[in-house]
Amino acid sequence: MTSLLVANIGELVTNSRALGDGSALGVCRDAALVVDSGRVSWVGPRADAPAADARLDVAGAAVLPGFVDSHSHLVFTGDRAREFSSRMSGRPYSAGGIQITVAATRNAPDDVLAANVARLVAEMVAQGTTTVEIKSGYGLTVPDEARCLAIARQFTPETTFLGAHVVPSEFADDPAGYVELVTGAMLTGAAPSAKWIDVFCEEGAFDADQAMAVLSAGKAAGLQPRVHANQLRHGPGVTVACEVGAASADHCTHLTDADVDNLRGAGVVATLLPGAEFSTRSAYPDARRLLEAGVAVALATDCNPGSSYTTSMPWCIALAVREMHMSVEEALWSATAGGAAALRRDDVGTLSIGSRADFTVLAAPSYVHLAYRPGVPLVAETYQRGQRIA
Ligand SMILES: [Zn+2]
Asked: What share of the chain is helix, strand, coil (3-state, %, to 5)?
């Protein structure tokens, strides 16, 4: 593979304190970067840049690590635009709407589901995402969960089995029987295509004991746990996530002081999904409380057709800054290195020596523009392993 010199970078974010200005973002001004065999091999002042086989002159633009979207639900078909519009007219959100997407997804052939994932991943890439986690959870039968995960696996190694999304209507009178299925035959069918196991621990979905049973069975099958926790009201999700050693507790909208202490103590990343609060017109999570307590915070889209139908990490950054009072620096870190931490990855989300050369070139001189110019398509180019993918 040939080497590539990315020259004339006005502002380079490395997320490495050892490089650049010593901040968490590791910002280098008037910088250059060299990619060799898909990895970053050199970072420094542009005047000192070594020669390479190819040269990309970004003319003073900002260059950032590709976004790591650590929470999405892309394997489905249909949309729920009418539900959104009626919610905006005053109807509250509940977990039940998931059943509509489950029915549509079960009836869709593989190629239709795969085409929908491809379309959404292309949207993500065009907006600077270079690593995405994709969950199942709209099949909820043994064969449908297995095929949804096999489809997700075509797009990313970060696949998550979410058979415990809701209890499907055919098990409404037998939730215990459904948990037995999820932890038995469904897990067996899902495991070959899944890296992670997740559960929607929430009133109306799964309680603490059921969540623990699902996550423990997943761990025994070689999957790593993550949890949908404390989204709609206070509940046991964060406690479960910390007890089971989850990589991440996602949503964290309703937390007690004990939950915050628990997250920090257990080293569980709090993944905030402000697109969900926006799309359900709900109160945002208290990001400042988590940050000030020293909890690692990630930002992700939660892309799904019910409660957050966005693929845009830049928009989530803008929301986090404006609505959750995160600084632009904190929001950018959370959308890159934070997402990587939530997936226990140290090769992405940073641009230090040896990192995967996943980066974006902005049509702007600074990362600040991501929040300063909300809704504007500022990602000019996206590179993965040093190759231009958008
Ligand atoms: Zn979710």
From this structure: 40, 25, 40
